[in-house]
Design brief:
Layout: H1 3-17, H2 22-25, H3 39-46, H4 54-58, E1 60-68, E2 72-79, E3 84-91, H5 99-114, E4 123-128, E5 134-139, E6 143-145, H6 146-149, H7 153-160, H8 165-185, E7 188-189, E8 198-201, E9 206-208, E10 215-216, H9 255-271, H10 281-290, H11 301-310, H12 322-356, H13 363-383, H14 387-406, H15 410-417, H16 425-451, H17 458-484, H18 493-513, H19 515-518, H20 522-547, H21 553-574, H22 580-593, H23 600-619, H24 622-648
Antiparallel strand pairs: 1-2, 2-3, 3-5, 4-5, 6-8, 7-10, 8-9
Helix pairs in contact: 1-10, 3-5, 8-9, 8-12, 9-11, 11-12, 12-13, 12-14, 13-14, 14-15, 15-16, 17-23, 18-20, 20-21, 21-22, 22-23
Length: 653
């Protein structure tokens, strides 16, 4: 059977079963339809009136009328035994002789009295009034029906300071769900849930009222409340009614019938009116069976989904419990709050974008704006994990990662991306390339730093400087002293070449011994190359001058000073500026020999001494120098002690 044919068949059966209620359905759709009672059942229950305490009723001082409904009237009274104000509900005068009305009032008292819940008005007692009719003594509630407040923002603001009527109504609705959940746990169906049957107290208390057509899911043996299994007649308010509430045998009433009524109430919150409307019996029943009321575009989609599920024509398609409905609405409110927080964070993100567009924003300002924005999105996600906050957080993190990438901070950009469950592939690849390039640059800079580290090989350089410097200083000084005592040797260029070759071989031996240290860094390599170049340079100088037929070795030595000055000046640029001192010394010596050519050995020795002391200053560690000084002082002391002993004759004996 197609869906359309099945729908028409269901409508036909419903109309046949409702023919006897046709007159009733001509009444307003918001008016409650009360099912008929069998005569036997009514008489049996009404006999209970004889058991009521008439004396208790006389302990009430009745005052003015608080309100009237379709069948009852509520009056203010004073309970004299406790001296407290109470409300007394009785039948309207024209219904005092109606057994149906009397029974409805009693059943409302019996059901309400069995439901001790904060959202159900407490029943204090049931007594007989002066006319012999029952009267219900209940808590006095100074309030207004939810129906009168639901769509009156001005009244809500004036009475409760409400700025968000939708949120206020939804929180009232959640309390109604609590009351219905409790009633279901006690095996009671309300069957007439609607805004008119919810009272809002002066302090925001919420009470579900009018339990007159409630039915029991299980038989407790008292017969006071009709069973849902026997409720085959039309009952409820057509404007909110579920399809199975149209009647029919067997009864299909269940907790999900009340779920449907909750959905209808929720619909009225967002749509401004009940879901079912119609001028004829056919229109009304058709809408009830169809159960697909229209939604305005302004209705939030999450709420629309909740309503459609709660009002599913098939009870099996609805929420299973009133608690599920409440949790769904609570989830929507959390989502709504999260969306509001996300929107505020969006404003902060726009401010961050504007800041990043500035020419040179400070990192402090950028990260302050980013922290505010990220906090807003994270707070929204703590309230509700919705797409608005999640997508906003991802967007701002990606934006900051690109900012860090532009600032040449790929590690910071990578750290930001780790906060994302799934980062954009292109950005992740770009950051990976930048990180690799940064690591390579860092490694290259580290190699350069190590290569230019002046402390690497320092002890080796100091040791070699001590050996070579001693030779460098002692050779010209010794030759000068020998000349002063008349032992001046007749040196030729050939002799100088032999000495240079010997020095070169000494350098080669020392370099071979310390090659690992001397080749480790650029400074050591430059110093080694400079020393080698100096010796080779003076060797070539002697060779060229010998080949040119020059006879004066002193003139060759004078030119050698100039060669050393140039080599030291160039080496100072790549090693240490202190080497400019001996370079200047050699240049000064070259100039002095132009006026005092006979002082070549003395000048050479002094210049070599300046170079030697400079090398010790550069490469000799303070503790090494102190240790060397201590050894020298110790040696002098030992020599003096030996001289004293020798003088005293101890050594000679």
């Amino acid at each position: 059977m197609t869906e359309a044919v099945e729908h028409d068949e269901q409508l036909r059966r419903a109309l046949e079963e409702l023919r006897e209620h046709g007159a009733t359905l001509e009444a307003p759709a918001s008016q409650t339809i009360v099912p008929p009672q069998t005569e036997t059942e009514a008489q049996r229950l009404l006999r209970l009136l004889g058991t009521f305490d008439e004396a208790a009723g006389k302990k009430l001082e009745l005052h003015g009328t608080l309100g009237e409904g379709g069948m009852g009237r509520v009056r203010l009274a004073t309970q004299t035994a406790l001296a407290r104000k109470v409300a007394v509900k009785t039948l309207r005068e024209e219904l005092l002789g109606s057994e149906a009305a009397t029974l409805k009032l009693l059943r409302e008292a019996w059901v309400t009295g069995s439901l001790e819940h904060p959202n159900v008005i407490p029943i204090y007692d049931v007594t007989l009034g002066p006319e012999g009719a029952p009267q219900i003594v209940l808590k006095r509630v100074e309030g207004t029906s939810w129906e009168a407040l639901m769509h009156d923002p001005a009244a809500l603001r004036a009475r409760f300071g409400v700025d968000d009527p939708l949120e206020w109504n939804l929180r009232i609705f959640m309390q109604v769900c609590n009351a219905i959940r409790f009633a279901h746990s006690r095996g009671v169906l309300h069957r007439d849930i609607k805004p008119e049957n919810v009272m809002i107290g002066a302090f925001g208390e919420v009470y579900v009222v009018d339990w007159g057509i409630a039915v029991a899911l299980e038989d407790d043996g008292s017969g006071r409340v009709p069973l849902a299994a026997d409720a085959t007649d039309l009952a409820g308010t057509p404007a909110y009614m579920a399809p199975e509430m149209l009647g029919g045998s067997p009864s299909r009433l269940s907790e999900r019938s009340d779920i449907y009524l909750l959905g209808s109430t929720l619909y009225e919150i967002v749509a401004g009116g009940p879901p079912h409307e119609g001028e004829t019996l056919m229109q009304m029943v058709a809408q009830i069976i169809d159960s697909s009321p229209p939604f305005e575009d302004t209705v939030p989609e999450p709420l629309g989904r909740i309503i459609r599920r709660a009002m599913d024509p098939d009870p099996e398609g609805r929420f299973e419990t009133a608690e599920q409905v409440r949790l769904a609405v609570q989830g929507y409110l959390r989502q709504r709050d999260a969306i509001a927080l996300a929107q505020k964070a969006d404003l902060r993100r726009a401010a961050l974008e504007a800041l990043l567009e500035e020419e040179e924003p400070t990192r402090e300002a950028v990260y302050r704006a980013f922290a505010e924005c990220r906090f807003g999105y994270r707070h929204a996600l703590e309230v509700y994990d919705g797409p608005e906050a999640r997508e906003g957080l991802e967007a701002v993190i990606v934006r900051m990662a690109r900012y860090e990438l532009a600032q040449d901070e790929p590690e910071s950009a990578h750290a930001l991306l780790t906060e994302l469950a799934e980062a954009p592939a292109d950005l992740a690849e770009e950051i990976a390339r930048a990180r690799e390039a940064k690591r390579e640059d860092g490694a290259r800079l580290e190699r350069m730093r190590a290569d230019l580290d002046p402390t690497a090989g320092r002890r080796t350089r100091a040791f070699l400087a001590l050996i070579v410097g001693a030779v460098w200083v002692l050779m010209p000084a010794g030759a000068y002293l020998l000349g002063r005592f008349g032992y001046e040797a007749d040196l030729t260029h050939l002799n100088a070449i032999v000495v240079d070759v010997a020095i070169l071989m000494l350098f080669a031996g020392l370099f071979t011994w310390a090659r690992e240290s001397l080749t480790r860094t650029a400074i050591n390599r430059r110093i080694s190359f400079a020393a080698f170049l100096a010796v080779v340079g003076q060797l070539l100088l002697h060779g060229v001058e010998m080949a040119a037929g020059g006879d004066s070795l002193d003139e060759s030595r004078r030119h050698q000073l100039l060669v050393w000055a140039a080599i030291l000046a160039v080496t100072a640029a790549g090693v240490d500026a202190w080497l400019l001192l001996p370079a200047a010394g050699y240049a000064l010596g070259f100039a002095i020999l132009a006026f005092f050519p006979g002082a070549v050995l003395l000048v050479f020795g002094v210049c070599n001494l300046v170079l030697f002391l400079t090398m010790l200053r550069l490469w000799g560690r303070r503790d090494d120098i102190d240790r060397l000084g201590a050894r020298m002082r110790e040696g002098r002391a030992q020599r003096r002690a030996w001289v004293r002993r020798w003088w005293d004759g101890d050594e000679r004996t």
